[in-house]
Design goal:
This protein is an all-alpha fold. It is about 75% helix and about 0% strand.
């Protein structure tokens, strides 16, 4: 994976690793090119789990994670996922700030 979109995707994975420190080792392993044989089926399974999030033990969180894993190998997904990720982060930050302001 090369280019600007690939670098942005890797920064997103780094951000996830900082937010969930227990996942750092797994994320480093799954991002290696040699893990492609595990990464693609895992991404597909996570997407399917996200689609069936109405069932117990499955959740909507699985869908974006699966898409991010597939984006490591499918460059056409990298741009849209990066833009969506930055948009969600911006909205989340604005929502948290507005909540803090209302509490004051």
């Amino acid at each position: 994976m090369t280019g600007k979109e690939g670098a942005r995707l890797h920064r997103q994975f780094d951000r996830i690793g900082r937010a969930v420190p227990a996942s750092t080792g797994f994320l480093a392993w799954i991002r290696k090119p040699s893990s492609r044989i595990v990464r693609i089926p895992l991404g597909i399974l996570l997407i399917l789990g996200g689609v069936f999030s109405f069932l117990p033990l499955l959740g909507v969180w699985m869908l974006p994670l699966g898409l991010f894993l597939l984006a490591l190998d499918l460059p056409f997904l990298q741009g849209p996922l990066n833009r969506l990720s930055f948009w969600v982060q911006r909205k989340w930050t604005n929502w948290q700030r507005s909540r803090k302001n209302k509490q004051r």
